[in-house]
Design a protein that fits this description.
It is globular, with a radius of gyration of 25 Å. It has an 8-stranded antiparallel sheet with strand order 3-2-4-1-10-9-11-14, covered by helices on one side. A 6-stranded antiparallel sheet has the order 5-6-7-8-12-13. Strands 18-17-19-20-21 form a 5-stranded parallel sheet, with helices on both faces. The chain folds into 3 domains: 244 residues, 4-Layer Sandwich (Glutamine Phosphoribosylpyrophosphate, subunit 1, domain 1), CATH 3.60.20.10; 175 residues, Glucose-6-phosphate isomerase like protein, domain 1 (Rossmann fold, 3-Layer(aba) Sandwich), CATH 3.40.50; 142 residues, Glucose-6-phosphate isomerase like protein, domain 1 (Rossmann fold). It is an alpha/beta fold. It is built from 17 helices and 26 strands. The structure holds fructose -6-phosphate. Fructose -6-phosphate binds next to α9 and α15.
Length: 611
């Protein structure tokens, strides 16, 4: 989705803005622009296409000035053209805005503003915002921003710049925005990663905040009447991510770097959380009494996080022996879920800002349920607004395709399952000590898996890259993993892929298996081993090229599959954490072989903050 940056300080704003936009480019975008103010004059440069176009246009031509705003646009209303790119200006060319989100009542506002003589240049919803600001502006940007925001409906993050003021004014309403606090300079950004090069101190803005950002001070107010008397102090958050975490180092792509970071990410997820045989989840703000009373568990998420949710369903049901549902957030929120005060709704999200997942949390809370967020980004909306939180601690994930966040989510769910089992006095499977030991050994097993998977995944990825379709099969916890493998392959290589519960294939989809179709089977579960073998026979009989991912000890595959990838042996409930590595690497290698833009696949955005 769109990225926002703002700078006010003593350094030249233009190069800082362009560099910070680059840091946000992973969110997905199709045009970029900046506006820089100097002595009452504002220069705007904006272009469709890559940030490199903007950088080139500015080379040798940089506007002077130490205050400005920048934006990467991911088109919603209006094509990705120069005129639709942000920043947008008022009629007089004195006021400027960049926006993230959607202004739902823009048609009515536009009619009103046209009638009052405003001239519109773009097809965007954003442009109404700046003409509205022009109506209210009489030399006080803060006051005009409050009046403007109060007229808007939808979800939005806005940053305003006025030619004649030495401050930026930022507004947050259901779209993320932070203020980065530096020494004699301050930043505004839609994402923490955009300020990490300069500071690790941030204010995470709340819904309704209108914030004046000067080089030496930050003042918070609100445009929501119901919050007029609420405290305006914001706690400074110290972010534990480092600038190096958001650089590519020597890897050709962020995605590959993040795949290789998984042993460390999972180690961080586990760190300090298993102590003297006890599970310690400090941020888990739900009383043991409350956990014991839960009579239904629901897990809700989108995309890759939803695949973690499906794993969570298998896991919690197996460990706790209680019913657990797993839902896609955009469905859950509209299907009138049956929830009450004894329900616990677990929301899983890397960003903590996915619109449908947030709406599901609100839906659950409105029905009296308790909510628990399993989230990667500290201070994100889900982390702040859920009743309890478990951080996945994977570190910043930059590539659009989620990798290390996924394995960290699986690991966090395993910790959570053990924690809830303890509170409810349920005995853990495999024996407690054994299980916890295996959990702690996961990072080492991941290292080993990376070594064994890399060459095989490259060979399979290159085969798949030459095909039109690919199928992934699995049973039990391998089924969500098969789904994740198919999603990864589709989103970054654009090879059509589908995942199937292996037993379900013959109820229709097997009709699509023809001579040479690659079929990759995940088969890490002993009790369905023979069933998987039968399913492979079925696709082989229809001409499929077959590949299998198994755990040490898998047998009987000779003459049945073309190649086998063997993972280290771990308890069966843990295998998806390891099997995720070949799933991700196969997709990566196929995409690389096809020369795709791995980190920024077409049409996709990292964090989906609109419905
Ligand atoms: C796929 C991917 C997406 C996200 C989904 C949810 O690789 O990254 O499917 O998993 O958009 O995002 P979060 O986890 O931020 O809620």
């Amino acid at each position: 989705m769109c990225g926002i940056v703002g700078y006010v300080g003593k350094r030249a704003a233009a190069p800082i803005l362009v560099d910070r936009l680059d840091d946000l480019s992973y969110r997905g975008y199709d045009s970029a622009g900046i506006a820089v103010a100097n002595d009452g004059v504002v220069v705007v440069e904006k272009l469709p296409g890559k940030i490199e176009n903007l950088r080139k246009a500015l080379t040798g031509n940089e506007p002077p000035g130490t205050i400005g705003v920048g934006h990467t646009r991911w088109a919603t209303h209006g094509a990705p053209t120069q005129v639709n790119a942000h920043p947008h200006a008022d009629c007089a060319g004195k006021l400027f805005v960049v926006q993230n989100g959607i202004i739902e009542n823009f048609p009515a506002l536009k009619r009103e503003l046209l009638a009052r003589g405003h001239e519109f240049r773009s097809q965007t919803d954003t442009e109404v915002v700046i003409h509205l600001l022009e109506e209210y502006y009489d030399g006080d940007l803060m006051d005009a921003a409050k009046k403007t925001a109060a007229r808007l409906e939808g979800s939005f993050a806005l940053v305003f710049l006025a030619a004649d003021e030495r401050r930026l004014v930022a507004v947050r309403y259901h779209a993320p925005l932070i203020v980065g606090v530096g020494g004699g300079e301050n930043f505004v950004a839609s994402d923490i990663t955009a300020v990490l090069q300069d500071t690790n101190k941030v204010y995470v803005l709340e819904n309704g905040d209108v914030v004046s950002v000067e080089a030496h001070r930050v003042d918070v107010d609100t445009f929501l009447p119901q919050r007029a008397k609420a405290p305006t102090e914001r706690r400074l958050t110290i972010v534990d991510w480092r600038a190096e975490d958001v650089s590519k180092n020597d890897y050709p792509h962020y995605m590959l770097k993040e795949i290789y970071e998984q042993p460390r990410a999972v180690e961080r997820t586990l760190q300090g959380r298993i102590k003297d045989g006890e599970i310690v989840l400090r941020e888990m703000d739900l009383s043991p009494e409350r956990i014991r009373r839960v009579d239904s568990f629901h897990i809700v998420a989108c995309g890759t996080a939803y695949h973690a949710a499906l794993f969570g369903k298998y896991l919690l049901e197996r460990v706790l022996r209680v019913p657990v549902s797993a839902d896609i957030a955009s469905e859950f929120r509209y299907r009138a879920p049956i929830l009450g005060p004894k329900s616990l709704v677990i929301l899983i999200s890397q960003s903590g800002e996915t619109a449908d997942t947030i709406a599901s949390m609100e839906e659950a809370q409105s029905r009296g349920a308790k909510t628990l967020a399993v989230v990667n980004v500290r201070g994100s909306t889900l982390a702040r607004e859920a009743d309890a939180v478990v951080y996945t601690r994977a570190g910043p994930e930059i590539a659009v395709a989620s990798t290390k966040a996924f394995t960290a989510q699986l690991t966090a769910l395993m910790l959570l399952a053990c924690y809830v089992a303890d509170q409810r006095k349920v005995e853990l499977p495999y024996g407690r000590e054994e299980l916890l030991r295996h959990l702690l050994e996961l990072p080492a097993h991941l290292e080993r898996t990376l070594e064994v998977a890399a060459p095989t995944a490259k060979a399979w990825g290159e085969i798949i890259a030459g095909e039109r379709d690919c199928y992934f099969l699995g049973r039990n916890v391998d089924e969500p993993l098969a789904r994740e493998a198919a999603l990864k392959l589709k989103e970054i290589s654009y090879v059509h892929a589908e995942a199937y519960a292996a037993g379900e294939l013959k109820h229709g989809t097997i009709a699509l298996i023809t001579e040479g179709t690659p079929v990759v089977s995940f088969m890490t579960q002993k009790d369905v081993w023979d069933k998987m073998i039968s399913n492979i026979h079925e696709v082989r009989a229809r001409g499929a090229r077959t590949f299998a991912v198994v755990c040490e000890g898998g047998y009987g595959l000779e003459d049945l599959v073309e190649d086998v990838l063997t993972l280290p042996a771990v308890p069966e409930l843990f295998t998806p954490v390891l099997a995720a590595i070949p799933a991700q690497l196969i997709a990566y290698e196929a995409a690389a072989a096809l020369g795709r833009d791995v980190d920024q696949p077409r049409n996709l955005a990292k964090s989906v903050t609109v419905e």
